[in-house]
Amino acid sequence: MKQRFPENFLWGASTSAYQVEGAAITHGKGLSQQDFINNNRSEKFGFADTSIASDHYHHFKEDIRLFKEMGFTSYRFSIAWSRIFPKGDHQVNEEGLQFYRDSIAELKANDIEPIPTLYHYDLPWPLVEKYEGWLSREVVEDFGYFAKFVVNEFKNDVKYWITINEQSIIVQYWTQKCYVPEKYQNQNQLRYQINHHMNLAQALAVKYIHEVGGLAGPALGYAPVYARTCKPEDQLAALNANDLRNFYYLDVYFKGYYTDAAFNYLKQHQLAPEIFDDDETLFSQNISDFLAVNYYDSQCAHACPEGADHAWSGYNLTGKKGDMSGFETHPGFYQMCPNPELRTTDWDWAIDPIGLEIVYRDLYTRYRIPFMITENGLGARDELTSDGKVHDDYRIAYLREHIAATQRAMGLGVQVLGYMPWSALDLLSTSNGYNKRYGLIYVDRTDDDPKTCQRIKKDSFNWYKKVIASNGTDL
Ligand code: BGP
C-alpha cells in the first residue's frame, strides 16, 4: 500500500558551504583546510578549486527563488566556521555572519525551514597551523566556542541542527576530508583519534543546541554492509563491518558509548583512540535527537584471514566503471568487495534503493529515532544539450526509487521527518570537481572555466517540483 507523506513532511535538498559558496578568501573569510586541499587537487588533477565554486555567495537570492519555485519547505546547508571566525579564534567576521543572517532570513521569508550543518569538512586553516587541527584535542574547545556562538545567534530561526557531517567517511578518506600532514599519513590510529575528537566536539554541540531548545542530529554517511555469501564466516564479516563502519558511530551518538566488538578489535590492532575517563560520560549526557542520513549506496564484505594486510578504502577518480583503487581490509575481521547483484554508477557506487529501506528498518528497531534524509543522489556527467536543457532521467529514476523506499518504510511505522537529496544545485564534488554533478539545478561552468555560473533547471527540477506539489504521491 502506498503511504502518504505527512502534511508537514520536509521536502528540500542539500549543499555544503565550501562546495557551493565560492568567495573562499574574500569578504573577510579565512582559509579553511578544504580551500587548501582543493587548491592542491586543482593543481594535481585539474579539478576546480573553492574560490568560485558555484558562486552561491553572490547568487543566494536567485538560488532560494528557484528552491521556492520547486516547492522546497526545507534546505540543508552548512555554515563555514572560517567565514565567521577567519582565524579560528574569537574574532568575528561581521560580513560573513551577515551572509548567513541574510540567507536564513531569505529562507524564512520563503517559508523554507533552514537546516544548517555546523561542520562539513572545513576547519579553519589557522587551527591546522596552530596545533594540527583535528589531530589535537585542543580543537574540541575551539569547535565548542564556534558551535555555541552560532547556535545562540540563530536559536530563534533554527529548529533542526546538523552537528558534524560524515565522521565515518572522514575516517575512511581522511586525507581528502581532513588535512593530515604527510608525516602522519601512515599512522592509522590517528584516523580514530580524529574521530574521537569529533565525537567530543559533536557532544558539545548537542549540549549547546539543547540549551536553547533545538534538536540535534549528526549526519552520517551510511552504507549498510551485506555479506557476499550466506556462508557463516561471510555473515560474521558483514556483522564486523557494520560494527566498525556504522554502529561504532551510531552507538556513541545514541547510546553514549563505543560498540564493544569494534572498539576491542581496534585495540587489538593498535588503532583504538586514546580516551579519557569522562569522555563517555559527556557522550551519554548529550544524546542526539535524530539521525541525518546521507545515503548513496550499500556495501558488501567477506571474511578475511588474520594474516592479510591492512588496507583502507579506495575510490574511483575517473568516472570509468571498474577504476576503483582498493577495498578496506581489516585482517581477521572483514574485507570489503563489490556486490555482483547491484547496478553501479559510473563511479562504481552501487545503486540500491532497497538498501535504504533496510537502513530505515534496522536503525529504527535498534535506536527508535526519527530520520531525516540529508543526502541521497546520483553523481553523473550531465550534459547541457543543444535545446538548452539537461535531460537527467537517470537521476529522476534514482531519486524516485529512493523516495518510494522511504514511503514503504514509513508505511511500516518508521519516522522520517524529511527528504533532502544531494544536491540542490551543482557544486564542487569532494572527489571529482565539476566532472561529477548531483544538482537539480545545473550550474553552467566547467572545472577550468567558471563562465557566469548561470542557473539552468534540469529535467529533475521539474520532476521534483511535481513530486513536492503532490506531497510524494506523483512520483
Ligand atoms: C558526501 C559528502 C558531500 C558530497 C557527497 C558526494 O560524502 O557529505 O559533501 O560531496 O558525499 O561525494 P562526491 O562529491 O565525492 O561524489
Automatic annotation (TrEMBL):
One of its GO terms (molecular function) is beta-glucosidase activity. Gene3D superfamilies: Glycosidases. The keyword Hydrolase applies. Pfam families: Glyco_hydro_1. GO terms for cellular component: cytosol. One of its GO terms (biological process) is carbohydrate catabolic process. SUPFAM superfamilies: (Trans)glycosidases (SSF51445). InterPro entries: GH, GH_1_N_CS, Glyco_hydro_1. Keywords: Glycosidase, Hydrolase. Belongs to the glycosyl hydrolase 1 family. This is Beta-glucosidase/6-phospho-beta-glucosidase/beta-galactosidase.
